[in-house]
Structures are given as structure tokens and as C-alpha cells.
Design brief:
heterodimer; A: mainly alpha; 3 helices; about 0% strand; elongated; B: mainly alpha; about 65% helix; flat
């Protein structure tokens, strides 16, 4: 089935090229954005689109072997933990007091009644 | 075709190192390290395809796990100033909207 093989080959080329493009665009965004909260978006592009397309291209090249199963496992794990880690970083930055830049109008970016930080943090038991 | 992937991953990693060195706040650096780890996973995977050794994918899966746990450990340390044995928590009750001066921990 020569046309099927050629089609899969072309599709894997396109996928790897698109994944590489998203990786470089995401890295350029991480460097060029003016604020931490914008760079968070660019890093999420690298984590989801770059890895997804690159792994998909590799899966098409590998065919129906055990290598594809391992790539699917890597893809599932990166897809679950990538956004989780990004959210953890954003939460830590927010709780420590960092706020977005906003425009230069002087209005607060996050209204004061939206912020809720728990006043009690439950400590784990102290071991003597 | 995999040479294109390796080259773009290399460029991405170098640009992430620039953000790691510059990054004015702490969380910029944590973000750069986490994304660098994800690019390392892909790098190991693609070089497994280049050298025609499918055993590299096991290493890539393992490093994906380690990277995630490491990022959460760094964030936990900088929030609680301990890694679980004797925490020293002061809740940050000085939160006010739209200023960056109410931070309690050093960010650079």
C-alpha cells in the first residue's frame, strides 16, 4: 500500500514540523513577554502543543509496535502533569503576592473582593 | 526528520536557559526549569528514534515523573520553608490587589 505509507510519512513530517514550530514560538514567547503571568501562557504552549504534536509525529513513524504504546504513556503523563505543574506555579506566585501588570490606567487588575486567601493554614502535626 | 525535532528542541532549551538566568522573579525560574525538564523528556525520546534504540523511551518516561515531583518539591519548599518535617508557615495576610510590594519572600 504505497499511497498509505506515503500519506503516513507526509503526515508525520507535518506533525513534527508543526511541533517544532510551536516549541520555538513558545520559547520566544517566554523570552519576550513583559510579565510573569504572560510567560506562563507561553510555557503552557510548549507543554501541550509542542509535546503533543512531536509525540504524535513519532507515533506515526513507529507504526503499530510496542514503541507506540510507550509513546502514548509518555503523552498521557505529560498531558496530565504539565498543566498541573503550571497551575501549581501560578498558585504559588499568586499566594505570595505577585499580580499582573495590567494597563496603565491605575485600576487594580484583580478586584479586592475577588481575592480570597484562607486565613488559617492547617499545619500537619509536629513530630517531637 | 528527527534532526529537525532535535534542532528545535535544542534552540528551545537554550532560550529557556536565557530566561532562567535573567528571570526577575523566583517563579520565572521555576517555570523555566519545569519546561526545561519537559523538553529534556522529548529530547531523550527523539534521540532514541535517531539512534534506533527504543530503550530510551523508558528513560524518558522516568524523567517525566522525576521532573514533575521535583517542581512540586521546589514550590513546596519556597512556600513553607521546610520539606515536611518542621513547617514554618506564616500566612500572608498582607495581600492587596495590584501591588507587588506585599511579598514576604525574596523573589530574585
Amino acid at each position: 500500500m504505497n499511497i498509505l505509507e506515503t500519506g503516513i510519512f507526509i503526515l508525520s513530517w507535518i506533525s513534527i514540523l508543526a511541533g517544532s514550530a510551536f516549541l520555538i514560538v513558545g520559547a520566544a514567547g517566554i523570552i519576550r513577554f513583559p510579565d510573569f503571568w504572560s510567560r506562563l501562557h507561553a510555557a503552557a504552549v510548549v507543554d501541550s502543543a509542542g509535546t503533543g504534536l512531536l509525540l504524535f509525529g513519532m507515533m506515526l513513524q513507529a507504526g503499530f509496535t510496542f514503541v507506540t504504546v510507550k509513546l502514548i504513556l509518555i503523552g498521557i503523563f505529560l498531558l496530565i502533569t504539565g498543566p498541573t505543574a503550571t497551575h501549581a506555579v501560578a498558585n504559588a506566585a499568586f499566594v505570595s503576592g505577585s499580580r499582573p501588570l495590567g494597563d496603565k490606567s491605575g485600576r487594580p487588575v484583580v478586584p479586592a473582593d475577588v481575592i480570597d486567601v484562607p486565613e488559617t493554614i492547617h499545619l500537619p502535626e509536629e513530630r517531637s | 526528520m528527527f534532526e529537525v525535532g532535535i534542532l528545535s528542541l535544542f534552540i528551545t532549551m537554550v532560550l529557556l536557559l536565557v530566561r532562567l538566568i535573567n528571570g526577575p522573579t523566583l517563579y520565572d525560574r521555576v517555570l523555566a526549569v519545569n519546561t526545561f525538564g519537559t523538553c529534556t523528556v522529548l529530547f531523550i525520546g527523539v534521540s532514541g528514534f535517531l539512534f534506533k534504540r527504543p530503550e530510551f523511551l523508558d528513560i524518558a518516561l522516568l524523567y517525566a515523573l522525576i521532573n514533575f515531583v521535583g517542581t512540586l518539591a521546589i514550590l513546596k519548599f519556597f512556600r513553607y520553608r521546610a520539606l515536611g518535617d518542621k513547617p514554618n508557615i506564616k500566612p500572608n495576610t498582607n495581600i492587596s490587589a495590584n501591588n507587588n510590594e506585599s511579598r514576604e519572600e525574596p523573589l530574585s
